[in-house]
Amino acid sequence: MSLGMFDGVHKGHQEIIKKLKKHSETHQLESALLTFWPHPRKVLQPEVEIKLLNTLEEKLQLLERFGIQKIFLQEFNDNFRNLSGEDFVKQILLDKLHMKHIVIGYDHHFGKNKSGNFELLEKMASENNFVVEETKAVLVNELAVSSTKIRNALSEGDIITANEFLGYHYPVSGTVVGGKKIGRTIGYPTANIDVDPIKLLPKKGAYIVDVELNGQMHKGMLSIGTNPTVNGTKKTTEVYILDFDQDIYGENITVYFRDYLHDEIKFESLEKLIERLDEDKQLTINFFK
User: Which terminus of the chain is more solvent-facing, meaning fewer CB atoms within 10 Å of its CB: N or C?
Assistant: First the structure.
């Protein structure tokens, strides 16, 4: 088994999962994983806002997709946070989950004041009859993959790096809701996506995306921002789907970020905005060619 927040289920996490699956197949054990919700920082530093790479539903779906057989979800609350590393191993991993083999990341800590780590597990392994295994850092472009680095890349609009670290295209899902309907008056009708507030959105700007709707994939371009050209103030996430003309209000939609087009721009007129949208559309068509 393994444990951790697993936000993003990125390439580093996937390496842990590979080792888990290999061991479980060799020794005919179930691959299991203990993860937490909410994010520990929400409990330990409630005054600091943190946006996550995955909603809880997304994370559970990804863990299942990568082949974890059993997922245990632990509420991260005051009682849980005050367990020492040793008590956590005894009370949770051994007494409750009957752990036989644990794989942890190279820099993983757990328990109160980060008192649990690889060294503690190694010390407790022989007297409690379990095996501990540590994974090395997974490097992409000579950088160790981490959830923090992916969040930083997305916040800078660096979609290519974020996707390389993740090992898949960064998804954002939500329900299509009504907007100001300005897009349809200029030939670019958009679907306004209501995104879970916990989900990290890339920085304001325009993006090339894949769009999944009712089990079908489409090509699209997406805007994150406040629509400054028409004096908007509310931040929205809107996607224009190429070669598409259907009423999809109330539908669930997922966009997968492929590349960054440009920063949010306030144009001096709607005509200038349309010119830029025409350019972006051509860039999007060329990208998918």
Answer: C
